[in-house]
Amino acid sequence: MIHNSTIDTQLNHKSIRKFKDITLNHEQLETLYTVFSRTATSMFMQNASLLHITDEAKKQKIQELCGQKYVGAEGDLFIFIVDLYRNQQIRKQLNKDDGRVHTTDIFFQAMEDTLLAFQNVANAVESMDLGYVPLGTINDH
Ligand SMILES: Cc1cc2nc3c(=O)[nH]c(=O)nc-3n(C[C@H](O)[C@H](O)[C@H](O)COP(=O)(O)O)c2cc1C
């Protein structure tokens, strides 16, 4: 079996649910945003968006919605969004909103874009010796 730093990082993955009370610095954030935006994307539509939740009241609300105490408790909280809205708005503003980016097919492409971007960022996080836990509970509401 081949071992290199990428593969070893992937093989050592485990979800982390308790974090130090430290947030990411500018360089770490910039790196993660760049990795996010360099992910392969169906038809180059970049139908994914990334929210970094820093407002404490919003974090609290999200924690309540998720029903998991560790959500946003320490560290950083991100929401990966399957985002058809941005491209729909761009097309609207250009008077080119012909419904083409409102289809189920585009929705699934957007899901694929978002999941790939998530995993790419997650791998980058672990390669920086940091931890994360994906939170599906955000979708329950
Ligand atoms: C789509 C998805 C949603 C998840 N949602 C949650 C969640 O809401 N809360 C949680 O504690 N873990 C969540 N997890 C983490 C899984 O529980 C975890 O990945 C799984 O138990 C395997 O453990 P590992 O990541 O340490 O290998 C989620 C994982 C995925 C892929």
From TrEMBL:
Gene3D superfamilies: NADH Oxidase
A GO molecular function held by the record: oxidoreductase activity
Pfam families per UniProt: Nitroreductase
Keyword Flavoprotein among UniProt keywords: yes
Chain ranges of the Nitroreductase domain: 13-139
Domain of life: Bacteria
Sorted UniProt keywords: Flavoprotein, FMN, Oxidoreductase
Sequence similarity: Belongs to the flavin oxidoreductase frp family.
PANTHER family given in the database record: NADPH-DEPENDENT OXIDOREDUCTASE, OXYGEN-INSENSITIVE NADPH NITROREDUCTASE
The protein's name in its UniProt record: NADPH-flavin oxidoreductase
Organism, scientific name: Lactobacillus gallinarum DSM 10532 = JCM 2011
